[in-house]
Amino acid sequence: MRGVRGRTIRAMKFVVVAHRRSETNHALAGAAAALGLPASVLSPRDALRTLEPGDIALGRLDVRDEVDGVESGTAELERLAAGGAALLNPPSALVAAHDKLLTARILRRAGVPHPRTWLIAEGTPSPAPELPVVLKPRFGSWGRDVVRCSTAEELDGALARLAARPWFAEHGVLAQELIPPVGWDLRLIVAGGRVIGAARRTAAVGEWRTNVALGGSSAPAPAPPLAQRLALEAAAAVNGDLIGVDLLPRGGGFVVAEVNGAVDFMPHYAVGPGNVYRNAVHELMRVALIRRAAA
């Protein structure tokens, strides 16, 4: 990016469009500011009032706390793009990443290995899932309401409990093939079609889920070539510009478990030299400039 840090780039604004003031969102804005760009984290409405044609907007809308859909702001992102802003992580990519049923269908069509997935909803015919399975909200995150079922009795009991959740009435629940847990997984970060981050997440003692929100830990880890290839394929399938891809080990390879359009990651994720947030912004800027030149 050194060859393109001239007056044109410095005139651009770089805005992380998000409702959450997370450490990752602020670190991305800080990395852009370190490159000489006016940068900030703004809500979708504030971004719509602030950004001008040629500025860069990075969509980081997450799932709602109620795990019943994507946060508001997709309409504002569409208007930013229509107004001439360079939009990264457009609404279509965010929905494809956050809607786990849509994710499963997209990855299957792209030939990316992913657990078999069934939708269980009132009034919707569905084949009986093969046990063991994992039940999860269609727009889930943080490991919330994720249940492992090994027997028909466990499945019936879990479905009865989850049916009382508000999100269940709207979206039903997903049943996914259980990839035998081994206590860890890999999370890779893809920015602009390149892997710029990787970490190994380890489940807490007595817990099979690896989510840090559930007490799991995260540590630096190499990204094997196969894992990188699958992460790149998954990010490309959902058309995401900054995407987290969670990979479960199976046999001698990996299965893509989740795709996250508002992934949080920490400094120790860096792959190779440099700061992981600055590397992410470098790749995102490269993509934005290519798209702007082609417009």
Structure description:
- The protein is α+β, with helices and mostly antiparallel strands and about 300 residues long.
- It folds into three domains: about 1-90, Cobalt-precorrin-4 Transmethylase, domain 1 (3-Layer(aba) Sandwich); about 95-115 and about 180-270, D-amino Acid Aminotransferase, Chain A, domain 1, CATH 3.30.470; about 115-175, Dna Ligase, domain 1 (2-Layer Sandwich), CATH 3.30.1490.
- About 35% of the residues lie in helices and about 25% in strands.
- It is built from ten helices and 13 strands.
- A five-stranded antiparallel beta sheet has the order 11-10-9-12-13. The protein has a four-stranded parallel beta sheet with strand order 2-1-3-4, with helices on both faces. A four-stranded antiparallel beta sheet has the order 5-8-6-7, with helices on both faces.
- The chain starts with 6 loop residues before the first helix and ends with a helix.
- Residues about 1-10 have low confidence and may be disordered.
List the helices and strands and how they pair.
Elements (H helix, E strand, L loop, with lengths): L6 H5 L2 E4 L5 H12 L4 E4 L1 H7 L5 E4 L14 H9 L3 E3 L2 H8 L1 H11 L6 E4 L12 E5 L9 E3 L2 H11 L3 H6 L1 E5 L6 E8 L2 E9 L14 E4 L4 H14 L3 E9 L2 E8 L15 H19 L1
Parallel strand pairs: 1-2, 1-3, 3-4
Antiparallel strand pairs: 5-8, 6-7, 6-8, 9-10, 9-12, 10-11, 12-13
